[in-house]
Amino acid sequence: RITLVDMPIKYLLLVNKQGQTRLAKYYEHMETEKRVNLEGEIIRKCLGRSETQCLFVEFQNYKVVYRRYASLYFIIGVDPEENELAILELIHFIVETFDKYFSNVCELDIMFNIDKAHMLIDEIVMNGNIVETNQRNVLSPIALLDSTMTGKD
Asked: Which of 27, 43, 45, 112 supports an S-S bond with 128, CB 3.0-4.6 Å?
């Protein structure tokens, strides 16, 4: 369980190995053109690093923490003074939650269920702050929604 509750997350990106953004969430206002440029630069910087290099890097006025799971990179931009290890733990929690919901998540699960991926992240992070770190509490509203969609209780 992550104990930090106030962690100003600026953005969260899910990117494949080819550098294509599969999911993007921004928690502070940024013009579209600036977002596109920022994503391009960050993706090039993260994907261009070797596996032996550390998983965080300073970029402009952000600290970028990333981790690769299978074919997806999970990239989170935070304030420079934030704890990198806590962000890595958050990334791992998001991946575990996706794995539990999608039964071993892959890139196609994200692409074909982008609304569910956004909902899962929204249950964990709100306005750039971590609001829930209990997997059962994150998954239960989505499961309830799924049951109402299929007509099962």
From this structure: 27
Strand partners, 78: 9, 63
Give 57-116 pLDDT, tens digit per residue: 999 889 999 999 989 999 999 999 999 999 999 999 999 999 999 998 889 999 999 999
User: What does pTM read for this prediction?
Assistant: 0.89
Nearest Cα to 64, choosing from 84, 86, 34? Answer: 84
3 state SS of 59: strand
Burial class (CB in 10 A: 0-12, 13-18, 19+), 101: buried
Give Cα 33 to chain centroid, integer Å. Answer: 21
Output phi, psi for 77, to 5 deg: -100, 130
Give the Cα separation of 97 and 94 in Å (integer): 5
H/E stretch holding 62: strand 62-69
